[in-house]
Amino acid sequence: MAVQTDRVISELRDLILSGQAQPGERLTELGYAARLGVSRTPLRLAFAELEKEGLLERMRSGGYRVRTFSMSDIADAVDVRGLLEGMAVRLIAENGLSQDVQASLEAIVRLGRELVDRATNSDSRMVDAEAWRRLNQRFHEVLVDACGNSALVSALDHNNKLPFVGPGSLTLPLVPTRLETSFVARAQSDHEDVLQALINRQANRAEALMREHAYRSRQNKRQLIEELRQQRESRGDLPDIGPAELVAHAISA
Question: In the chain, count of helices (H) and strands (E)?
Answer without folding.
Answer: 10, 3
